[in-house]
Amino acid sequence: MVHAQRDFVELDLTGNMLGSVQLYYTPILVYFGSLENCLSVIVFFGTKLCQYSSSIYLGTLAISDTGFLVSVFVVWLNMVEVGLFNKPGFCQFFIYLTTLCSFMSVWLMVAFTIERFIAVQYPLCCQSMCTVARAKLTVAVLIILGLILCSPVFVLWFSAPRLQSNKKGNVTECHLAEGLESWAIVYNVIDTVFTFAIPFTVIIILNVLIARAIYRYIKIRKSLTNEPRIMKERQSYAQSFRHNFAQTKITKMLLVVSSVFLCFNLPAYVLRIHAFLHEENNAPRSVELTQQVCNLLFNTNFGINFILYCATGQNFRRAIRCMFLRRFRNRSVTIIT
Q: Which CATH topology does 17-164+171-327 take?
Protein backbone atom coordinates (compact mmCIF):
# COMPACT_ATOMS: atom_id res chain seq x y z
CA MET A 1 0.00 0.00 0.00
CA VAL A 2 2.85 2.34 0.91
CA HIS A 3 4.62 1.54 -2.37
CA ALA A 4 1.42 2.18 -4.35
CA GLN A 5 0.95 5.56 -2.68
CA ARG A 6 4.57 6.48 -3.32
CA ASP A 7 4.27 5.50 -7.00
CA PHE A 8 1.09 7.56 -7.31
CA VAL A 9 2.81 10.61 -5.80
CA GLU A 10 5.81 10.18 -8.12
CA LEU A 11 3.53 9.92 -11.15
CA ASP A 12 1.62 12.99 -10.02
CA LEU A 13 4.85 14.98 -9.63
CA THR A 14 6.02 13.78 -13.03
CA GLY A 15 2.70 14.85 -14.52
CA ASN A 16 2.99 18.32 -13.01
CA MET A 17 6.54 18.64 -14.30
CA LEU A 18 5.52 17.56 -17.80
CA GLY A 19 2.64 20.03 -17.70
CA SER A 20 5.05 22.84 -16.83
CA VAL A 21 7.45 21.75 -19.56
CA GLN A 22 4.64 21.72 -22.10
CA LEU A 23 3.40 25.14 -20.95
CA TYR A 24 6.74 26.88 -21.50
CA TYR A 25 8.44 24.63 -24.05
CA THR A 26 5.68 24.59 -26.69
CA PRO A 27 5.61 28.36 -27.47
CA ILE A 28 9.43 28.43 -27.56
CA LEU A 29 9.43 25.47 -29.98
CA VAL A 30 6.76 27.07 -32.16
CA TYR A 31 8.48 30.47 -32.29
CA PHE A 32 12.04 29.33 -32.98
CA GLY A 33 10.97 26.32 -35.04
CA SER A 34 8.79 28.46 -37.32
CA LEU A 35 11.55 31.08 -37.62
CA GLU A 36 14.12 28.43 -38.52
CA ASN A 37 11.75 26.78 -41.00
CA CYS A 38 11.16 30.11 -42.73
CA LEU A 39 14.92 30.63 -42.93
CA SER A 40 15.29 27.12 -44.37
CA VAL A 41 12.74 27.96 -47.08
CA ILE A 42 14.73 31.08 -48.02
CA VAL A 43 18.00 29.12 -48.15
CA PHE A 44 16.64 26.21 -50.20
CA PHE A 45 14.61 28.31 -52.64
CA GLY A 46 16.62 31.56 -52.74
CA THR A 47 20.27 30.44 -52.97
CA LYS A 48 22.38 28.22 -55.21
CA LEU A 49 20.96 25.20 -53.39
CA CYS A 50 17.80 25.58 -55.49
CA GLN A 51 19.66 23.82 -58.32
CA TYR A 52 19.50 20.57 -56.32
CA SER A 53 16.31 18.55 -56.44
CA SER A 54 16.63 17.75 -52.74
CA SER A 55 16.13 21.44 -51.95
CA ILE A 56 12.63 21.26 -53.43
CA TYR A 57 11.70 18.49 -51.00
CA LEU A 58 13.35 20.14 -48.00
CA GLY A 59 11.93 23.58 -48.73
CA THR A 60 8.44 22.12 -49.00
CA LEU A 61 9.08 20.11 -45.85
CA ALA A 62 9.91 23.33 -43.98
CA ILE A 63 6.60 24.87 -45.11
CA SER A 64 4.69 21.75 -44.02
CA ASP A 65 6.46 21.67 -40.66
CA THR A 66 5.56 25.32 -40.07
CA GLY A 67 1.90 24.55 -40.71
CA PHE A 68 2.04 21.78 -38.13
CA LEU A 69 3.69 24.07 -35.56
CA VAL A 70 0.95 26.66 -36.08
CA SER A 71 -1.63 23.96 -35.28
CA VAL A 72 0.33 22.96 -32.18
CA PHE A 73 0.34 26.58 -31.03
CA VAL A 74 -3.43 26.92 -31.48
CA VAL A 75 -3.94 23.78 -29.37
CA TRP A 76 -1.50 25.12 -26.76
CA LEU A 77 -3.60 28.27 -26.41
CA ASN A 78 -6.08 26.16 -24.41
CA MET A 79 -3.49 26.00 -21.65
CA VAL A 80 -3.60 29.78 -21.26
CA GLU A 81 -7.41 29.95 -21.39
CA VAL A 82 -7.66 30.99 -25.04
CA GLY A 83 -10.17 28.54 -26.52
CA LEU A 84 -9.69 29.29 -30.22
CA PHE A 85 -9.16 25.61 -30.99
CA ASN A 86 -12.50 24.68 -29.42
CA LYS A 87 -14.61 26.95 -31.63
CA PRO A 88 -16.70 25.54 -34.52
CA GLY A 89 -14.75 25.58 -37.77
CA PHE A 90 -11.41 26.17 -36.08
CA CYS A 91 -11.58 22.73 -34.47
CA GLN A 92 -12.15 20.96 -37.80
CA PHE A 93 -9.70 23.09 -39.76
CA PHE A 94 -6.72 22.67 -37.45
CA ILE A 95 -7.33 18.93 -37.06
CA TYR A 96 -7.33 18.73 -40.86
CA LEU A 97 -4.20 20.92 -41.11
CA THR A 98 -2.38 18.74 -38.57
CA THR A 99 -3.33 15.56 -40.45
CA LEU A 100 -2.30 17.03 -43.81
CA CYS A 101 1.05 18.35 -42.55
CA SER A 102 1.85 15.02 -40.88
CA PHE A 103 1.10 13.21 -44.14
CA MET A 104 3.19 15.64 -46.18
CA SER A 105 6.16 15.53 -43.80
CA VAL A 106 6.46 11.77 -43.76
CA TRP A 107 6.02 11.32 -47.52
CA LEU A 108 8.39 14.16 -48.36
CA MET A 109 10.88 12.30 -46.18
CA VAL A 110 10.18 9.14 -48.19
CA ALA A 111 10.53 11.01 -51.49
CA PHE A 112 13.98 12.44 -50.86
CA THR A 113 15.13 9.21 -49.18
CA ILE A 114 14.28 7.38 -52.41
CA GLU A 115 16.10 10.08 -54.36
CA ARG A 116 19.19 9.79 -52.16
CA PHE A 117 19.13 6.02 -52.62
CA ILE A 118 19.18 6.49 -56.38
CA ALA A 119 21.98 9.07 -56.08
CA VAL A 120 24.33 6.77 -54.16
CA GLN A 121 23.29 3.41 -55.59
CA TYR A 122 23.00 4.47 -59.25
CA PRO A 123 25.15 7.64 -59.54
CA LEU A 124 25.24 7.50 -63.35
CA CYS A 125 21.44 7.76 -63.46
CA CYS A 126 21.29 10.54 -60.90
CA GLN A 127 21.54 13.46 -63.34
CA SER A 128 18.70 12.17 -65.50
CA MET A 129 16.39 10.94 -62.72
CA CYS A 130 17.01 13.30 -59.78
CA THR A 131 16.07 16.57 -61.47
CA VAL A 132 14.47 19.72 -60.09
CA ALA A 133 11.54 19.38 -62.51
CA ARG A 134 10.86 15.82 -61.37
CA ALA A 135 11.09 16.89 -57.72
CA LYS A 136 8.53 19.66 -58.32
CA LEU A 137 6.21 17.18 -60.02
CA THR A 138 6.59 14.74 -57.12
CA VAL A 139 5.80 17.47 -54.58
CA ALA A 140 2.73 18.52 -56.57
CA VAL A 141 1.48 14.92 -56.67
CA LEU A 142 2.04 14.52 -52.92
CA ILE A 143 0.13 17.73 -52.20
CA ILE A 144 -2.83 16.56 -54.31
CA LEU A 145 -2.81 13.11 -52.69
CA GLY A 146 -2.56 14.66 -49.24
CA LEU A 147 -5.48 16.98 -49.85
CA ILE A 148 -7.59 14.07 -51.10
CA LEU A 149 -6.62 11.41 -48.56
CA CYS A 150 -6.95 13.79 -45.60
CA SER A 151 -10.24 15.26 -46.81
CA PRO A 152 -12.44 12.84 -44.76
CA VAL A 153 -11.15 14.53 -41.61
CA PHE A 154 -12.62 17.81 -42.82
CA VAL A 155 -15.52 16.71 -45.03
CA LEU A 156 -16.99 14.21 -42.54
CA TRP A 157 -16.15 16.51 -39.62
CA PHE A 158 -14.68 13.74 -37.46
CA SER A 159 -13.99 16.36 -34.81
CA ALA A 160 -16.38 18.91 -33.34
CA PRO A 161 -16.70 21.08 -30.22
CA ARG A 162 -18.40 19.03 -27.49
CA LEU A 163 -19.35 19.71 -23.89
CA GLN A 164 -16.96 17.84 -21.60
CA SER A 165 -16.64 17.52 -17.83
CA ASN A 166 -13.26 18.03 -16.19
CA LYS A 167 -11.72 19.57 -13.07
CA LYS A 168 -12.89 23.02 -14.16
CA GLY A 169 -16.48 21.88 -14.67
CA ASN A 170 -18.37 21.62 -17.95
CA VAL A 171 -16.33 23.11 -20.79
CA THR A 172 -16.50 22.94 -24.58
CA GLU A 173 -13.56 21.04 -26.10
CA CYS A 174 -12.64 19.79 -29.56
CA HIS A 175 -13.29 16.02 -29.56
CA LEU A 176 -14.41 13.21 -31.82
CA ALA A 177 -17.88 13.98 -33.17
CA GLU A 178 -20.76 11.88 -31.94
CA GLY A 179 -21.93 9.06 -34.20
CA LEU A 180 -18.70 8.85 -36.22
CA GLU A 181 -16.76 6.54 -33.91
CA SER A 182 -16.78 3.57 -36.33
CA TRP A 183 -15.76 5.74 -39.31
CA ALA A 184 -13.01 7.34 -37.25
CA ILE A 185 -11.60 3.91 -36.33
CA VAL A 186 -11.50 2.86 -40.00
CA TYR A 187 -9.83 6.10 -41.02
CA ASN A 188 -7.35 5.84 -38.13
CA VAL A 189 -6.28 2.38 -39.34
CA ILE A 190 -5.86 3.61 -42.93
CA ASP A 191 -3.98 6.68 -41.74
CA THR A 192 -1.65 4.57 -39.59
CA VAL A 193 -0.85 2.34 -42.56
CA PHE A 194 -0.15 5.24 -44.94
CA THR A 195 1.66 7.54 -42.50
CA PHE A 196 3.50 4.97 -40.41
CA ALA A 197 3.70 1.35 -41.57
CA ILE A 198 4.53 1.85 -45.25
CA PRO A 199 6.70 5.02 -45.12
CA PHE A 200 8.66 4.00 -42.03
CA THR A 201 9.43 0.60 -43.54
CA VAL A 202 10.65 2.23 -46.76
CA ILE A 203 12.76 4.82 -44.90
CA ILE A 204 14.41 2.24 -42.62
CA ILE A 205 15.28 -0.14 -45.47
CA LEU A 206 16.61 2.60 -47.76
CA ASN A 207 18.58 4.26 -44.95
CA VAL A 208 20.38 0.98 -44.30
CA LEU A 209 21.18 0.62 -48.00
CA ILE A 210 22.29 4.27 -48.24
CA ALA A 211 24.56 3.93 -45.21
CA ARG A 212 26.07 0.79 -46.70
CA ALA A 213 26.65 2.55 -50.04
CA ILE A 214 28.33 5.52 -48.35
CA TYR A 215 30.54 3.17 -46.35
CA ARG A 216 31.49 1.36 -49.55
CA TYR A 217 32.25 4.69 -51.22
CA ILE A 218 34.57 5.74 -48.37
CA LYS A 219 36.26 2.35 -48.47
CA ILE A 220 36.85 2.60 -52.24
CA ARG A 221 38.32 6.09 -51.91
CA LYS A 222 40.79 4.83 -49.35
CA SER A 223 41.72 1.83 -51.49
CA LEU A 224 42.25 4.04 -54.54
CA THR A 225 44.54 6.27 -52.53
CA ASN A 226 46.52 3.42 -50.99
CA GLU A 227 46.62 1.00 -53.92
CA PRO A 228 47.25 2.61 -57.34
CA ARG A 229 46.99 -0.78 -59.10
CA ILE A 230 43.27 -1.08 -58.72
CA MET A 231 42.69 2.49 -59.91
CA LYS A 232 42.18 1.38 -63.51
CA GLU A 233 39.83 -1.40 -62.50
CA ARG A 234 37.54 0.95 -60.56
CA GLN A 235 38.23 4.17 -62.39
CA SER A 236 34.76 4.55 -63.90
CA TYR A 237 33.14 3.72 -60.56
CA ALA A 238 35.33 6.20 -58.71
CA GLN A 239 34.77 8.94 -61.30
CA SER A 240 31.03 8.59 -60.97
CA PHE A 241 31.31 9.10 -57.22
CA ARG A 242 33.63 12.08 -57.63
CA HIS A 243 31.20 13.56 -60.14
CA ASN A 244 28.48 13.28 -57.54
CA PHE A 245 30.58 14.34 -54.56
CA ALA A 246 28.26 17.24 -53.78
CA GLN A 247 25.34 14.82 -53.95
CA THR A 248 27.14 12.54 -51.48
CA LYS A 249 27.49 15.42 -49.01
CA ILE A 250 23.76 16.09 -49.29
CA THR A 251 23.08 12.38 -48.81
CA LYS A 252 24.98 12.29 -45.53
CA MET A 253 23.00 15.27 -44.25
CA LEU A 254 19.66 13.81 -45.29
CA LEU A 255 20.58 10.45 -43.80
CA VAL A 256 20.92 12.17 -40.42
CA VAL A 257 17.67 14.11 -40.92
CA SER A 258 15.64 11.01 -41.79
CA SER A 259 17.20 9.01 -38.93
CA VAL A 260 16.28 11.72 -36.42
CA PHE A 261 12.80 11.81 -37.96
CA LEU A 262 12.42 8.08 -37.27
CA CYS A 263 13.66 8.38 -33.68
CA PHE A 264 11.34 11.27 -32.81
CA ASN A 265 8.24 9.93 -34.56
CA LEU A 266 8.45 6.21 -33.80
CA PRO A 267 7.49 6.38 -30.07
CA ALA A 268 4.32 8.39 -30.79
CA TYR A 269 3.17 5.96 -33.48
CA VAL A 270 3.95 2.93 -31.31
CA LEU A 271 1.77 4.38 -28.54
CA ARG A 272 -0.91 5.13 -31.10
CA ILE A 273 -0.99 1.47 -32.12
CA HIS A 274 -0.94 0.42 -28.46
CA ALA A 275 -3.95 2.63 -27.73
CA PHE A 276 -5.79 1.15 -30.71
CA LEU A 277 -5.09 -2.45 -29.69
CA HIS A 278 -5.85 -1.86 -26.00
CA GLU A 279 -8.92 0.32 -25.94
CA GLU A 280 -9.35 1.72 -22.44
CA ASN A 281 -11.77 4.36 -21.24
CA ASN A 282 -9.42 5.32 -18.42
CA ALA A 283 -5.81 4.69 -19.39
CA PRO A 284 -3.26 4.24 -16.58
CA ARG A 285 -1.52 7.40 -15.43
CA SER A 286 1.84 6.02 -16.55
CA VAL A 287 0.53 5.56 -20.10
CA GLU A 288 -0.80 9.12 -20.16
CA LEU A 289 2.57 10.49 -19.03
CA THR A 290 4.41 8.39 -21.59
CA GLN A 291 2.07 9.72 -24.25
CA GLN A 292 2.84 13.31 -23.23
CA VAL A 293 6.57 12.67 -23.54
CA CYS A 294 6.12 11.04 -26.95
CA ASN A 295 3.97 13.93 -28.16
CA LEU A 296 6.67 16.41 -27.08
CA LEU A 297 9.25 14.44 -29.09
CA PHE A 298 6.86 14.21 -32.03
CA ASN A 299 6.22 17.96 -32.02
CA THR A 300 9.94 18.73 -31.59
CA ASN A 301 10.72 16.97 -34.86
CA PHE A 302 8.86 19.69 -36.76
CA GLY A 303 11.11 22.44 -35.42
CA ILE A 304 14.67 21.11 -35.37
CA ASN A 305 15.55 20.34 -38.99
CA PHE A 306 17.30 23.69 -39.43
CA ILE A 307 19.67 22.77 -36.60
CA LEU A 308 20.35 19.41 -38.25
CA TYR A 309 21.04 21.09 -41.60
CA CYS A 310 23.53 23.46 -39.97
CA ALA A 311 25.21 20.67 -37.99
CA THR A 312 25.61 18.18 -40.85
CA GLY A 313 25.26 20.14 -44.10
CA GLN A 314 28.41 21.85 -45.33
CA ASN A 315 26.65 23.17 -48.43
CA PHE A 316 23.79 24.48 -46.28
CA ARG A 317 26.17 26.36 -43.97
CA ARG A 318 28.00 27.81 -46.96
CA ALA A 319 24.72 28.95 -48.53
CA ILE A 320 23.66 30.70 -45.31
CA ARG A 321 27.04 32.38 -44.98
CA CYS A 322 26.96 33.61 -48.59
CA MET A 323 23.37 34.83 -48.23
CA PHE A 324 24.09 36.91 -45.15
CA LEU A 325 27.38 38.23 -46.56
CA ARG A 326 25.61 39.29 -49.76
CA ARG A 327 22.89 41.11 -47.83
CA PHE A 328 25.49 42.78 -45.59
CA ARG A 329 27.44 43.99 -48.63
CA ASN A 330 24.28 45.28 -50.32
CA ARG A 331 23.31 47.16 -47.16
CA SER A 332 26.83 48.63 -46.88
CA VAL A 333 26.70 49.80 -50.52
CA THR A 334 23.28 51.36 -49.91
CA ILE A 335 24.51 53.25 -46.84
CA ILE A 336 27.62 54.51 -48.67
CA THR A 337 25.54 55.62 -51.64
A: Rhopdopsin 7-helix transmembrane proteins (1.20.1070)
